[in-house]
Design goal:
This protein is α/β, with parallel strands linked by helices. The protein folds into two domains: 2-101, 60s Ribosomal Protein L30, Chain: A (2-Layer Sandwich), CATH 3.30.1330; 108-260, 3-Layer(aba) Sandwich (Alpha/beta knot), CATH 3.40.1280. Helices cover 38% and strands 21% of the residues. The chain has helices spanning 10-20, 22-28, 36-44, 56-61, 63-72, 81-87, 127-140, 157-162, 166-169, 178-183, 225-230, 248-260, and strands at residues 2-3, 30-34, 49-55, 75-79, 96-101, 117-121, 144-148, 172-175, 189-193, 200-201, 212-216, 233-236. Helix 3 crosses helix 5 (63-72) and helix 7 packs parallel to helix 12 (248-260). The N and C termini lie far apart (48 Å).
Length: 261
C-alpha cells in the first residue's frame, strides 16, 4: 500500500470532490462507499473498486476485511487518521473507504418478467428518502427502480449509506421523463400514487397477475400531472388519522409491501 500524508494530494482532492459534487461523480463515473459495512457490501457484490483508502487505526480494527479489499482494489492507500477525517462524510469515521466505478445497470425492461414489480420515482429530492426506498425495495423483492433524471443522485454518500448496500445489488435505471418512459411500455400496468380521497384505495388493487409499476412523486409537490396522466390508474393510501399525507419513503414502503405480498 502506498502512503499519503498531504492534504493536497490529487487522490485526496478527487475523493473530496466525489463526496460533495453530483456533477463530478457523473463526469468521473465514480462514487464513494465509506465504512466497513458498505465496503464489505461492495466486495461481496463484486463492485469495481478503483481505490481503497484506509487510516492507520483501521489496520488494527479491520485486518481481514482490509486484506480482502487490497486484493480486489486496483490501488490501495494508507493515510493518517487526521487526514482520513478530512475526507470522511461521517461524524465518527471508521477509517475505510472505497472509490468505486459507477455501476452499469442494463435497462430494466429488456428482461422484464411477466409479473415483475417495479417502482418509479419522479423527482425525489431527499437523499435519506431515496436511500431508504432503495433499501426497502431490495428487502421486499422489488425487481427494479426507475428514477427520473431530476431525482437526487443515487451515488450521493447519504443515498449509498442509507441504502445499506442496495445500490450495489438492485437493478435500476435513470430516464429523462417518467411519463415518456411509461408510454414506451404499454404492457405494464402503471399506477400513480396520489393524495386524493376520491382515488381508488391501494388495498383494492391486485398486483399479482401482470407486470406492475407504481410511481411515487416529489416529497413536497407530489406527481406531475403529465406523469399521472401517463399511468393506467391512480390510487391513494387509505389513512384513518388526520395526517394529509405520508413521508415519501414511508408511502413507498407501504406500497411495495402491497405489491409483493
Amino acid at each position: 500500500m502506498k502512503r499519503i500524508s498531504a492534504k493536497d494530494n490529487p487522490l485526496i482532492k478527487h475523493i473530496n470532490k466525489l463526496m460533495k459534487s453530483a456533477g463530478y461523480r457523473g463526469e468521473c463515473r465514480e462514487f464513494i462507499a465509506e465504512g466497513a459495512r458498505l465496503c464489505e457490501d461492495a466486495l461481496v457484490s463484486d463492485a469495481d473498486i478503483s481505490s481503497l483508502v484506509i487510516s492507520d487505526s483501521a489496520l488494527d480494527n479491520y485486518p481481514e476485511l482490509i486484506d480482502e479489499l487490497v486484493c480486489k482494489a486496483d490501488k490501495s492507500y494508507i493515510v493518517p487518521d487526521a487526514l482520513f477525517s478530512r475526507i470522511s462524510d461521517t461524524k465518527s469515521p471508521q477509517g475505510i473507504l472505497c472509490v468505486i466505478k459507477a455501476l452499469d445497470n442494463p435497462t430494466l425492461f429488456d428482461k422484464i418478467k411477466c409479473n415483475g414489480k417495479f417502482l418509479a420515482l419522479d423527482n425525489i429530492q431527499d437523499p435519506s428518502n431515496l436511500g431508504t426506498i432503495l433499501r426497502t425495495a431490495e428487502a421486499v423483492g422489488i425487481d427494479g427502480v426507475i428514477m427520473s433524471a431530476d431525482c437526487c443522485d443515487i451515488y450521493s454518500p447519504k443515498v449509498v449509506r442509507g441504502s445499506m448496500g442496495a445500490v450495489f445489488r438492485l437493478s435500476y435505471c435513470v430516464t429523462d421523463n417518467i411519463a415518456d418512459f411509461l408510454k414506451e411500455y404499454q404492457n405494464i400496468d402503471s399506477y400513480a400514487a396520489v393524495v386524493n380521497s376520491d382515488a381508488k384505495k391501494l388495498t383494492e388493487i391486485s398486483f399479482r397477475d401482470r407486470a406492475s409499476c407504481v410511481v411515487i412523486g416529489n416529497e413536497a409537490n407530489g406527481l406531475k400531472k403529465s406523469t399521472v396522466d401517463a399511468c393506467s390508474l391512480s390510487f391513494t393510501i387509505p389513512m384513518k388519522g388526520r395526517a394529509e399525507s405520508l413521508n415519501a419513503s414511508v408511502a413507498a414502503s407501504i406500497i411495495m409491501w402491497e405489491m409483493v405480498k
